[in-house]
Amino acid sequence: MLSHIVESLSRDPGILLGALLGTTAMLSAATIGIAAIAGHCWRMVRQTEDNNALKHALLSQGMTAEEIATVIIAWPGRRRSIPSHAGSWKEKCAS
User: Fold this and answer.
1) CA 19 → CA 1, 4, 7, 68, 70, distances in Å?
2) Dist CA 47 CA 83 (whole Å)
3) Are 78 and 72 in contact (CB under 8 A)?
4) pLDDT value at residue 85
């Protein structure tokens, strides 16, 4: 079976070119997809670290949890400190 494939590729250079281009396209798509997923995860980790550093700084200033929540919600770009799919912490603690 493998020898038949090798013979077909060696006889017709068009098939060889198509196989090489197809393989390159699939590998490129996989690489771009992996890079996109890794970039998204990296951004989420950095965003979480940033939110935690802010909360720690506010706690060290003696702010209450309600005051910290008010600051986090009021700060532009920080409104989604918890992913929407995570649900409410009250729901998780109740179960």
Assistant:
1) 17, 15, 14, 58, 58
2) 11
3) yes
4) 52
**d(C-alpha 43, C-alpha 33), whole Å:** 15
**Single-letter amino acid, residue 2:** L
Cβ atoms of 71 and 58 closer than 8 Å:
yes
Tally of CB atoms within 10 A around 63: 15
Say how far apart CA 54 and CA 77 lie, in whole Å: 13
Taking only the tens of pLDDT, the chain with its 95 residues reads 888 877 877 788 888 888 899 999 999 999 999 999 999 999 999 989 988 998 999 999 999 989 988 888 887 765 554 555 555 555 555 54
Q: Where are the domains of the chain?
A: 2-82
Measured distance CA(45)–CA(42) in Å, rounded? 5
